[in-house]
Amino acid sequence: MGCLLSKRNKIQPPNEEEEEEEESDKADPIIGVTQQVEQDEDLVTTTVPVFKEYSLTELRNATNGFNTEYIVSESGEKAANVVYKGKLLVENNNNRLVAIKRFSKLSWPDANQFVVEASGVGKVRHKKLVNLIGCCAEGDERLLVAEYMPNDTLSKHLFHWDKQPLPWEMRLRVTYYIAQALDHCNTENRRIYHDLNAYRILFDEDGDPRLSSFGLMKNSRDGKSYSTNLAYTPPEFLRTGRVIPESAIYSYGTVLLDLLSGKHIPPSHALDLIRGKNVLLLMDSSLEGQYTNEDATNLVELASKCLQSEARDRPNTKFLVTAVAPLQKQREVASHVLLGLQKNTAVPPTLFSPLGKACVRMDLTAVHDILLKTGYKDEEGAENELSFQEWTQQVQEMLNTKKFGDIAFRDKDFKSAIDNYSKLVVLMPVPSATVFARRALSYLMNGQPELALRDAMQAQVCMPEWPTSFYLQALALSKLGMETDAQDMLNDGAAFETKKQNSWRG
């Protein structure tokens, strides 16, 4: 146990001037999250293996001889191109779960064309995509290998749910993540996306929605195919039999209708309802009380724009991103929480206090509520206020700054909380673990996990056995992708909580 600083020498201790420089460098926030930071993080794909050609033997072994028990396609063996779950040896001799799509033998007569096309798609990498990591073209076999998504498709969650209907906030997150994925493909000059629908959107191990890269593959018939019911296909495909870049926008509009209604409604019927201002008839009744009329109306209007019969009248991908970004009201809530998924943890949840459990769930809103209720009472000698010395003008300024910081923290104005707590840290004669903890959470809410980690470490310096500081370090480390260290911090926090409880009993 102990401060992470001893475990990770690369992480420097807090420096107020450095923090201010970093904040100024990231001074263009969009809806509480810095756009540039978000974009950079989306492009980080270090855990995705380099694209390669696999042998048929490797893929046959990965699927136990293409065993039907390994099929994960929702239509099973009836699917035109079956998808299998497999375990494949990738870089560094690690086993990795993958999805292997096996095309019908007539889909790609030209093996070289298939490999060239797959290799091109394999270069397009993004956290909002199900990335393509390999292919195989031997004899009559044509196979694609992609990341495995363990938490089903949007179709399953929308139309065939078991425990709960897909919540409104997750539906909004789908609109945003898929718009970002399409926009990235556009910037990578992959402007054609084939047959975008609820089956092409899958949920990863964290519950985040991702767009399948299979739809980026230009098929051997030069785009002259569309697998869905003709009632949902873009008008230009019905007229010419060809898919164009704007076809993806139309299909995005049909996905918006799916999300709004919870049903697969033909666009023509939905547009009739919209024109007749019968929008409430369009909405999924299970969502009652979860959305504002304004947000629902904005999404309906966007769907209407996407479903224009003339391709030139539809918006572009950047417009989609801009339109749905302001609708994201609960960015701080992890996707697995919205989906109702339980994330595995090596430590039994019974060892954790409510704060520890909230950190395991990555539920920042719950963490905020707990820190707010706890106040400053964990700090020795201060039940409600910090210990201050004699009454001077400096102390008055300190008290006012603390008050403004606490009000901003209570009201979830995390940028103002950061500003006021940063001033308070400079003014205070004695550091406060609670102030560092509150600023750490504010940094997490503001999409700045590295600064949050530094503050959580500083809180531990102030109070070496304070469980809260360890839990906040765990949150920041998890956001930075350092899951092993995050688990260590959770274990340390739980151990100190147990020690504290035992001392009370003694």
TrEMBL record:
Its main location: membrane. Residues 1-29 are annotated as: Disordered. It is a lipid-anchor. Residues 69-339 form the Protein kinase domain. Its EC number is 2.7.11.1. PROSITE patterns: PROTEIN_KINASE_DOM (PS50011). GO terms for cellular component: plasma membrane. InterPro entries: BSK, Kinase-like_dom_sf, Prot_kinase_dom, Ser-Thr/Tyr_kinase_cat_dom, TPR-like_helical_dom_sf, TPR_BSK1_C. Pfam families: PK_Tyr_Ser-Thr, TPR_BSK1_C. It is found in: Cell membrane. The keyword Lipoprotein applies. Keywords: ATP-binding, Cell membrane, Kinase, Lipoprotein, Membrane, Myristate, Nucleotide-binding, Serine/threonine-protein kinase, Transferase. GO terms for molecular function: ATP binding; protein serine/threonine kinase activity. Residues 15-25 have a biased composition (Acidic residues). PANTHER family: SERINE/THREONINE-PROTEIN KINASE BSK5 (PTHR45863), SERINE_THREONINE-PROTEIN KINASE BSK2 (PTHR45863:SF15). This is non-specific serine/threonine protein kinase.
